[in-house]
Amino acid sequence: MKRFLCLIMMAAVLLCCAGCAKPHSATVYAMDTVMDLQVWGKDGEKALESLQAVIKEMESTWSAASEESDLRQNALPQQSRAVMEFAIQLQERTWGSFDPRLGGAVQAWGFYDKNYTVPTQEQLRDGIRSGQWDLGGMLKGYTGDQCVKALEQLAVDRAILNLGGNVQTYGQKPDGTPWSIGIQNPDGGDPVGVVSVVGTMAVVTSGDYQRYFEKDGVRYHHILDPYTGMPARSGLRSVTVICRDGATADALSTALFVMGLEQATEFWRGSDDFEAVFITDDGSIYATQGAALSGCEYEVIARED
Ligand code: AMP
Ligand code: MG
């Protein structure tokens, strides 16, 4: 009996250690942002290498900003067609608010080479007409999906990847508690609240504070209205989307930002695959009823009015 008790105690200690074990971690600079990778499990180091390879490959294939990428060199591999078709589906699903061919307009603002300038209406019109591909609105989310596929091939218990504002979780915490992901305050400082998710999930934020420049006292950010090519002024500062599929989460966060709260609410009511958190220009917070948001006051968006 004593021996049995001893074994149980040892098992409990081992379980506890697995729960509080230190992650294998790495920081990567890619896609013009800092990415933090944390992985738990036997294959932790191997996983970090695989993840970095996935991220680099995604960047060298799809970067719209780099003239060296396969996309800009017109040298995309055959299998990339499926990604482009998925992007077009997301464009149709979001009533055109997500537009994967806005590259000409993004470039006209100088967001690629950071040589910022305010383009004329004509330059923006020409930019939109060029139909140049730019998957920047879904690339980090799609990269998260590819990272999950890589992790599934390895002995990894769980992971949390922060791909520059795009968070991808993988697996369960041993004690069953959810992952907690902070929602950034658009004005900086502490997060305004925390979203909890269980298991493998993408939590992706689009915000006007993530990439912008100022000219003559006006702030121009990087999320463009596809019809005008101007930075979308929809009354929102940020949109966070919680969804199983990373590419969808990412495209939707961009699209809902363009739509604004009212249209985005209508869109959410017609969908069943995501939840969202919105921060408006006046700092008010809204969350759809399935978003597990805590740590702040907010208004719940219900399925029906
Ligand atoms: P995100 O940070 O995911 O909201 O994506 C913003 C990036 O996507 C920008 O830096 C552009 O490269 C691109 N983009 C800007 N506006 C749009 C849009 N309306 N639809 C799709 N991509 C966009
Ligand atoms: Mg996006």
Q: Using the alpha-carbon principal axes, give the shape.
A: globular
End-to-end separation:
62 Å
What is the alpha-carbon Rg in Å? 21 Å
| Computed structural class | alpha+beta
Order of helix and strand elements from N to C terminus: HEEHHHHHEEEEEEEEHHEEEE
Low-confidence spans:
4-19
**Strand residue percentage:** 15-25%
Notes on the structure:
The longest helix has 19 residues, at about 1-20. The strands form three sheets. This protein has a nine-stranded mixed beta sheet. Strands 5-6-13 form a three-stranded antiparallel beta sheet, with no helix packed on it. A two-stranded antiparallel sheet has the order 8-9. A hairpin with a 2-residue loop joins β1 (about 25-30) and β2. It has about 300 residues and is α+β, with helices and mostly antiparallel strands. It starts with a helix and ends with a strand. It contains eight helices and 14 strands. Magnesium ion binds next to α7.
Strand and helix map with partners:
Layout: H1 2-20, E1 24-30, E2 33-40, H2 44-62, H3 80-93, H4 103-108, H5 121-130, H6 139-152, E3 158-163, E4 166-170, E5 179-183, E6 193-197, E7 201-207, E8 212-215, E9 218-221, E10 236-243, H7 246-259, H8 261-269, E11 274-280, E12 285-288, E13 293-294, E14 299-301
Parallel strand pairs: 12-14
Antiparallel strand pairs: 1-2, 2-3, 3-4, 4-7, 5-6, 6-13, 7-10, 8-9, 10-11, 11-12
Helix pairs in contact: 2-6, 6-7, 7-8
Bound molecules: adenosine monophosphate and magnesium ion (MG).
